[in-house]
Amino acid sequence: MKILITGASGLIGKALQGAFAHRGYEMLLATRREPGKPDQIQWSAEDGFREEDLERLEGLDAVIHLAGEPIPALRWTDEKKKAIRDSRVKGTHNVVNTLANLTQKPKVFIAGSAMGFYGDRGDEIVSESSPPGDNFLADVCREWETESRRAEDSGIRTVLLRTSIVLSKDGGALATMMTPFKFGVGGVIGSGKQWMSWVSLDDVVGIVNYAIENPELRGAVNVASPNPVTNEEFTKTLGDVLYRPTFLPLPEFAVNLVFGEMGDALLLNSTRVDPKRLRDAGYEFKFKDLKQALEHAVK
Q1: Domain 2-298 CATH class label
Q2: 3-state secondary structure of 54
Q3: What pTM was estimated for this model as a whole?
Q4: pLDDT by residue (tens digit) across 79-127?
Q5: β-strands 48-49, 40-44: how paired?
Q6: Which residues contact 234 (CB under 8 A, 6 or more apart)?
Q7: Short-list 79, 74, 70, 80, CA closest to 112
Q8: Which of 93, 124, 128, 293 has the fewest CB atoms inside 10 Å of its own CB, making it the most exposed?
Q9: What is the C-alpha separation between 204 and 200, in angstroms, rounded?
C-alpha cells in the first residue's frame, strides 16, 4: 500500500503516520520545505507539486489531503480568514488537478473537511444529507468540498471527512481546553446548551483506514461519535476526568469581546452531528462514551 499525505505534520497526520508505519505501508509525506528524506515530496497550497516529482505520484493507492491553515487564533483578521480559505480551496484545487492528470490515478482521495460545514444548528440533528450553514466556516467547507469532489469527476473515489472535535492531549481543541482546567479555572462556555460533537483520535485513524479499505464508501462522511453532548456535559465530564473544578463560566459576551467572530464559530455554535453514513456502513466506533474517550485521550 502506497499513500500520500498532505498535512502530515498535523495532529491527525502524525497519528496516521504511526498507524500506517505499523501496517507496513509506504508513505509519501508532502512538505513545504526542500525534501530532506526519501519519503518526502515538495508541495505547497499555492504552487502544488513540482513537475519533476509527478512521476512519484503515479499508482498511489490513496491520497489523504489534510493540509490547511490552522483555524484557531486570538481573533480572525481579514488576512487570517483569507489564509484559512485559500490554503484549503486553492490547495485542494492544485492537488485535484495534479491527480486528475496522472496516468495511474489513485484508487481513493480522502479529503479533509469539518463539521463547520453545518454552521450553527441549535438542537437540530444533522447528517451528511443536511444542507450547509451560512457562516464563514460553512462557506469555506462548502467551497473546500466542491474542489475535492472534482476528483470524483475524474474517476477517483472520493471521501470527504467532516471531522468534529478530535480528542487528544497532543493537539487540537482538547489540548487548548485542558489548560484552564489544569489551573482550576475551567467552566461552561456561554449557555452551556450548545451541542459539541466529538470523536477520539483513535476513531479518526480507524475511519480513515475504513475509508481506504471499503470501496463502497464515498462522498461526505461525518467523523463524529454517535453520542454528541452539550457544552455543559462536556465541561463536567472533562473536569471529572482531570479532577478539577468547573465552576468558572465564560459568558457569551466575554467570548464575543475577546475572540469576536472566531469565538462565536468555535465556542458558541451548536452542531449536533449524526455519523449516519458510518453507522449505515457498519463502522464500529472504538469510543462511543465521552468519559472513556477523554480518559484515553489524556492518559
Answers
A1: alpha beta
A2: helix
A3: 0.96
A4: 999 999 999 999 999 999 999 999 999 999 999 999 999 999 999 999 9
A5: antiparallel
A6: 196, 198, 290
A7: 70
A8: 124
A9: 7
> Cell triple for residue 178?
485542558
Q: Residue 26's beta-bridge partner residues?
A: 2
- List the grid coordinates of 218: 464515498
Residue 215 is given by DSSP the state T
Is 112:7 a contact under the CB 8 Å cutoff? Answer: yes
CA atoms within 13 A on the CB side of 92: 29
Residue at grid coordinates 509525506: 29
Candidates 169, 210, 160; CA nearest to 19 is: 210
Residue 176 confidence (pLDDT) above 90: no
DSSP 67: -
pLDDT for the residue 271:
98
Per domain, the residue ranges of the chain are 2-298
User: Which residue type occupies 13?
Assistant: G
